[in-house]
Amino acid sequence: MSAVYDCRTPADREEGLAAAANTVRAGGLVVLPTDTVYGIGADAFDATAVHALLAAKGRGPDMPVPVLVGSWSTVDGLVMSVPQQARALIEAFWPGGLSLVLPQAPSLNWDLGNTRGTVNLRMPLHPVALDLLREVGPMAVSSANRTGQPPASTVAEAREQLGDSVQVYLDGGPSGEPVASTIIDLTQGWPRVLREGAVSLSEVSEVLGEDVEADR
């Protein structure tokens, strides 16, 4: 049976974060609120847990799982290098609705799917998510829904779709308008927009000092 914790009350939040951290360390799955939509997460370095996450969503490794981090500094240990463009975007939009695709550090022993040597990183702007990430480290997190179904903007919607495949649900209240993060690929030496979302391309262009347009 899964457990639901209302993180809008201090006692439940503390208990829920402890339960979620223990679950992640034990290789289980948790649902957590973020600043975009609810996410289903696992220890990024536990391949079995990541495979369970994909199975819960009903999707395969062809759609790799993004990684959420709890601080800027965490990124340096996960990627081959952090180019100046990435640092500028991190300083401007993290924590927030911008995801960056960068070449992963070759020494990392993880299996996030068919990443082709890259990793999709984001630092969410949500206190519950940040508290959990700072406790357990980087997490593989995807939207908390079955593939093909709408992303969950409440714990109830996530639980209806994912059920007991998830051990702990952290309820942070409605996420508001379910807007996905903007994804910028910086693996080719220039910014490539994979998805426009919470951060506008004009905002990205202003920070980078060059026009950034979505792929056509």
Automatic annotation (TrEMBL):
Membrane-spanning residues: none
Domain of life of the native organism: Bacteria
Stretches assigned to the YrdC-like domain: 14-199
InterPro entries hit by this protein: DHBP_synth_RibB-like_a/b_dom, Sua5-like_dom, TC-AMP_synthase_SUA5
EC number: 2.7.7.87
Keyword set, alphabetical order: ATP-binding, Cytoplasm, Nucleotide-binding, Nucleotidyltransferase, Transferase, tRNA processing
SUPFAM superfamilies to which the protein is assigned, alphabetical: YrdC/RibB
Pfam families tied to this protein: Sua5_yciO_yrdC
First-level EC class: transferase
Subcellular locations according to the entry: Cytoplasm
Gene3D superfamilies the UniProt entry points to: DHBP synthase
The reaction(s) this protein catalyses: L-threonine + hydrogencarbonate + ATP = L-threonylcarbamoyladenylate + diphosphate + H2O
Family as reported in the entry's similarity comment: Belongs to the SUA5 family.
Name by which UniProt lists this protein: L-threonylcarbamoyladenylate synthase
Lineage: Bacteria, Bacillati, Actinomycetota, Actinomycetes, Pseudonocardiales
